[in-house]
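INTERNAL AUDIT FORM
Audit reference: QA-55
Scope: verify that the stored structure record matches its stored sequence.
Auditor: D.O.
Record contents follow.
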Amino acid sequence: MNNQPISGRIGHFCGSHPVDMPLPYDILRLFTSPQGYLVEIQHLAGRAAAAATAREWLWVTDHSVTSLRALPADSDTPQVWHFREAQLQLDGMHTQLLWHNGDCQALMACSMPALPAAQHQLIHNHLS
């Protein structure tokens, strides 16, 4: 038998994925609050055929990910975005996510768009 030698090198893992594994998306914008993270992502090549579907807004908590589905852009402005689930009001470093059930998250923009590993894993699972 032609057995290949085992290198003995142990890779580092986060959950069930290697740490150095490239993500299938780029984080474009990240906002934080005590309740969670609002993330705008761009799917990398092969994940989205059209420019409109290449970007996605996600609400990420410690236990779940919710995709925010954009409504027709008739009333959207660079400061206000309308989604089926909520309305997003952007104001520089401060942002509000107003859910249709009356809940409101006040968010702050992050200059370094980096999420904790647990939230990356939740996003990976959500997009798979």
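Auditor finding: record pair retrieved intact. Residues 92 and 128 are 32 Å apart (CA to CA).
Action required: none
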